[in-house]
Design goal:
Elements (H helix, E strand, L loop, with lengths): L1 E4 L2 E4 L5 H16 L5 H14 L6 H7 L2 H9 L3 H21 L8 H13 L3 H19 L7 H6 L11 H22 L5 H9 L5 H18 L3 H4 L2 H25 L6 H11 L6 H13 L1 H10 L12 H18 L5 H5 L1 H19 L1
Antiparallel strand pairs: 1-2
């Protein structure tokens, strides 16, 4: 449907005469400075949902009719109004659902674009909550745990899929990960690429929850990098860094347990990974590493990062063994302590690369 306001053409999905007139009035109010009674628009929308309760694509068509107005607010840099248009778009759908228990309007589109708006303005927590609400809508409507939708592409860091409005966000995450994957391959002598990681781990995870935590943590790390280094130098800065690293270690733990489900302690997962990577660490050696962490966590972490940690049996850890030992230390301490660790503040980037190495190691050897 084409409508012309002030000599400018707009193209909308036709939804029936009454709803079409509602959108004509909405566009006339926004672009032509005409009056609009929002309650009348909501009433028409509720009638539309009553006539079209099954989400066969018509719900997406309804919500997509708001995108031109949304884009206009984004063009003006008015994020408050850009968010508000999706609140308004959702309002009649939520009202209809409230009056029709057990029935649902498919709301993946508005939650996705609302989440995209919030991410653009810099609120990661709210943005990812909204995007994952879109994913839940997509899962319910499609009946697929891994839906082929823009919300899921964003949540799972699927940069290869071009059919997504917010692909730039996902590409930025891919660009952030690329040098880390390349460093892993260089240090370990492996031919492992980001595309390998996407196909074998991100695109085929044992649990979407693992990937969701990973991609959200990557977004937080990218935002964290924008903080000037001198501003981070504080005990709280070190605690914040430790929390980010702990989340990465949780991804490692969960990814390992998916392949070694009969064990639940990280020491057993670390032993399992070292064996599969052909650099075996015994459970006794890992217990000795843990004892060293308990005795002096800061020094042990420093020594492990530097590759100079010597075990009681005389073993000097290899690079891969040292990296696994770092992940073991970060995982265990993060689960039980919140106190400041000077070595984390001093070596955050090194530890981050090490933990990323271990994630890539898991994907490389086990997936």
């Amino acid at each position: 449907m084409e409508i012309i306001i002030g000599g400018r053409s707009f193209y909308l999905n036709s939804l029936g005469s009454q709803m079409d007139q509602g959108f004509i009035s909405l566009y006339s109010a926004h672009f032509g400075h005409q009056a609009l009674c929002w309650e009348d628009f909501e009433s028409l929308s509720i009638q539309f949902f009553t006539a079209n309760p099954v989400p066969t694509g018509i719900h997406d068509a309804y919500f997509n009719n708001f995108t031109t107005i949304w884009n206009d607010f984004l063009r003006l840099g008015n994020y408050d109004k850009a968010e508000d248009i999706w609140r308004r778009a959702l309002s009649p759908a939520l009202s209809w659902e409230s009056s029709n228990p057990g029935k649902f309007i498919h709301k993946g589109t508005p939650y996705y674009f609302w989440g995209m708006t919030v991410l653009l303005r810099g609120d990661l927590d709210k943005g990812y909550v909204l995007v994952h609400r879109a994913v839940e809508e997509d899962i319910r409507t499609t009946g697929k745990p891994v839906p082929d939708t823009p919300g899921f592409f964003l949540a799972s860091l699927n940069y290869a899929e071009v059919g997504q409005a917010f692909r730039d966000w996902v590409l930025q995450q891919a660009q952030y990960l690329t040098p880390k994957v390349e460093k892993y391959s260089s240090q370990y002598g492996r031919n492992f690429t980001l595309e390998d990681f996407r196909k074998r781990f991100l695109g085929a995870p044992p649990s979407t929850d693992i990937v969701f935590l990973f991609t959200y943590t990557i977004a937080r790390l990218m935002r964290f990098e924008a903080i000037p280094k001198h501003a981070i130098i504080s005990k709280f800065g070190g605690q914040f860094e430790a929390h980010l690293l702990f989340d990465i270690s949780l991804v490692i733990d969960a990814a390992l347990r998916a392949k070694n489900p009969t064990k639940w302690k990280f020491i057993d997962q670390a032993e399992f990974l070292s064996q599969r990577a052909s650099v075996p660490l015994t459970n006794k050696q890992l217990q000795d590493i843990n004892s060293a962490y308990v005795a002096n966590f800061d020094k042990t972490l420093e020594d492990t990062i530097s590759g100079v940690l010597v075990l009681p049996d005389g073993t000097i850890l290899s690079r891969i063994q040292s990296n696994i030992a770092v992940a073991y230390g970060v995982r265990n301490r993060g689960a039980h302590e919140v106190s400041f660790v000077p070595a984390i503040l001093s070596h955050f980037n090194d530890i981050l690369q090490i933990l990323m190495n271990v994630i890539f190691l898991v994907a490389d050897f086990l997936y």
